[in-house]
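Tip: read the tokens left to right.
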């Protein structure tokens, strides 16, 4: 027995053209979109220049170029050390007297005082001292090898404190600067001392292993001005 309803008919199958509805929302044609241009937009020239300038500054900072001023850029590791204007002035003004003053302050002032007057009974004065204003070779011997035992300076006796040798502490150049300073300070007017003069004394007294005594110093040279000193 058939269960089909003879009054119900199947809907007709739509054709392919019926499925296209030009006025449907999803079928509205859009305007033609122009194709993308293959020509790239030019990079602004000023931006090129700015980037190049920044890269140049960065490179200068690491390589040590100081084109824009010595204090403007970091010199970078391995770059040349460039002194500032104040440092350059200081270096130019560093005379033997200036260098000798620094050496004296770090090695001698504790005993002989910044004024060079020494300490009564203990440390002899350098102001007007016959050992300072006398023969350079004798003064060089004291500084190179040291001094031990009592010593008479300007008619006064000073103790037995041993002055240590400086030849293992100071170079001949520094000893020359030190001698120049004490011979030309606090009213002393003796001439400057050269490195060659100190080296000559160092060679002459190389075999002298102990600190000098007053008697030994008197054998080197008597009291009195150094004949090589020239009056100004």
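Filled-in amino acids:
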């Amino acid at each position: 027995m058939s269960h089909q309803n003879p009054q119900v008919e199947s809907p007709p199958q739509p054709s392919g053209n019926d499925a296209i509805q030009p006025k449907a929302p999803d079928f509205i044609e859009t305007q033609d979109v122009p194709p993308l241009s293959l020509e790239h937009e030019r990079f602004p020239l000023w931006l090129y220049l700015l980037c190049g300038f920044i890269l140049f500054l960065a490179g200068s900072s690491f390589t040590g170029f100081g084109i824009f001023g010595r204090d403007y850029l970091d010199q970078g590791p391995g770059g040349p050390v460039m002194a500032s204007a104040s440092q350059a002035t200081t270096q130019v003004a560093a005379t033997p007297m200036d260098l000798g003053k620094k050496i004296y302050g770090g090695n001698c002032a504790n005993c002989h005082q910044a004024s060079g007057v020494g300490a009564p009974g203990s440390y002899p004065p350098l102001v007007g001292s016959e050992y300072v204003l006398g023969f350079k070779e004798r003064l060089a011997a004291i500084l190179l090898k040291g001094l031990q035992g009592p010593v008479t300076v300007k008619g006064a006796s000073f103790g037995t404190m041993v002055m240590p040798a400086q030849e293992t502490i100071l170079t001949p150049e520094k000893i020359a600067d030190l001698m120049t300073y004490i011979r030309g300070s606090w009213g002393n007017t003796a001439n400057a001392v050269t490195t060659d003069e100190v080296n000559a004394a160092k060679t002459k007294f190389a075999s002298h292993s102990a600190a000098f005594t007053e008697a030994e110093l008197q054998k080197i040279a008597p009291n009195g001005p150094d004949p090589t000193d020239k009056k100004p």
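The chain is about 35% helix and 5% strand. Residues 41 and 47 are 14 Å apart (CA to CA).
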